[in-house]
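A reminder before we start the practical. When you read a complex entry, don't treat the lines as separate problems. The point of joint prediction is that each chain is placed relative to the others, so the output describes one connected object in space. Small molecules and nucleic acid strands, if listed, are placed in the same frame. In the example below there are two entries. Take a minute to note the order of the lines before looking further.
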Amino acid sequence: MSKLHSSRTRIKTSWDTKAFNVMGYTIVTIFALACVIPFILVLTGSFTSEKWILTHGYSLILRPENFSLEGYATIFRSPEKILNAYAVTTFVTVVGTVLSILLVTMTGYVLSRPSFPWRNGISFYFFFTTLFSGGLVPYYLLCTQYLNFKNHLYALIIPGLFSVWNMIIAKSFMKGIPNELVESAKIDGAGDLRIYFQIMMPLCKPMIATLALFTALGYWNDWYNCMLFISDDTKYNLQYTLQNMLRSAEFITKIAQEQGRTVASVPSESMKLAMTVVAIGPIVALYPFLQKFFVKGITIGSVKG
Amino acid sequence: MRMRNKQQTQLTKAPRGQTLLRNVKKNRTMLWMLVIPVTMCFIFCYIPMPGVIIAFKKYDYMKGIFGSEWNGFDNFRYLLMSKKLWTLTRNTLLYNIVFIITGTIFQVGLAVILNEMLHLKFKKISQSLMFLPHFISWVVVATIMLNIFGDHGVLNQVLNKLGLESVSIYAYENASKWPIVMVLLKIWKGAGYGSVVYLAAIVGISPEINEAAKIDGANIWQRIWYVTLPSLKPTIIIMTLLSIGGIFRGDFGMFYQLVKGQHLMASSDVLDTYIYRTMMSTSNMGWSAAAGLYQSVLCFITINIVNFVVKKVDPDYALY
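Here is the predicted structure of the whole assembly.
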């Protein structure tokens, strides 16, 4: 703070500082624009008519002559698909995040207790899985042939449920909370469950908020598990629906058939963009409110304990 | 003396079984709390581990993992003979090395610049904007790519307006340019997010040091070079080490979503994409499992070497 203050009150800035500022502001401006312009392009593109995109290309500014809602109209003409995907993604995100936070913080709580005799052994038991894994093939065979993951919604929830890294973050955060609090509660007769729910959880709110946000983001953006385990298209999630739309011409043919029109008349470009907007909409809309948690969260995560 | 010692050990030994029992009883709630995570970890992480034997088998769906016939090192031999292993390892390794270097430079650079910014509103807004790409999946990045670099994309539009020929980066003759595209996208997606970690570390530097440097007549460049960067060194080292631990793991999402078409494979196929593709498309699970085991072992070795070195140099930074 003092540094900030002193350089502000300084009357003369040397030319070095000026040069640095010019360079710094330019780089940051360019990079920030590079980060945001693609999003604006997607948004305006989704409102542009197909014809305009094919003849003039995308444009940053919407004008009356290129404005059109046909992209959205196409995806919402047969809305079951998209509503389904939304329902799947929302369900998976909510249930997955709640369960994941419970499991992760519970484990973190137990392993952060100095009185728990097996904390080192069990910590290593979890940590080892980040060092060595059996690889994709055995995992895939286990999930599909023995655990019946194919076409079940829990296949989208279970794989992301327990993250060792999140557990380590939870553990090191809880280690920072004075043990005397727990001890005194114990003397007052509280059991471990009660201590966990009524003392630890409220004290860990900032950590829980950030972990929850990261977990939710992971579930929302997941397409990998859907690709591995789901082949029934009523159980596709949002990202996977989008991926299918981008990857396969089949998808467009299907839409054309469903809506009783020719393939050529489907506004495929603006439809793809409309679908992208639909898929990232909630994140971008919530982003300004959530951002401070994310910034905090990264710093929590970077503290090693 | 010896007798007493013996007696003592016997005394402490005798109740050991009881101690365990008492401990279990005392901590039963906590043990219950661990049941689900421990079981899950066992099922999803430990049970697949013996499954690596598929790498040494000719896998047959009908016979299952244990019923399939052994074929020794045939799967590995195939991967070696077809030169797949070499290409994949080279690609994975080179991409990750370049990602780590460019990523670190960009993230540290941005953090240093942001730290010197006095216009707080500008700083906050630009930081928010730079964060945005981190929140979207590679699927969405793929749409954006098509938007900008596709045949009707913004790039071609601009080129056409300037009277230049249009470029199609998805075309065969441009396959060699893909590594550059990948690196740029990786920077784009990760720089804003990564810079926060370094910015937090810079904020932790005590302002007196900078103040003293200023009074001694150091200009802004000298302050960055002699004060800020050296004090960032520990953070840079630990972040780099963490990434080196995963240097044989390609970013599956990125490579899978962005790369479309067989002709781009040579320059952008990594171990992870090969493992997935082989598992899904060929009837030979063995090849995929062999590549997977190879990758797991490489990762295990590198992370242990890294940890060993770190422990030697500075035990505080060791992972375990």
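Discuss with your neighbour: Chain A has two domains: 13-68, 74-302. What might explain this?
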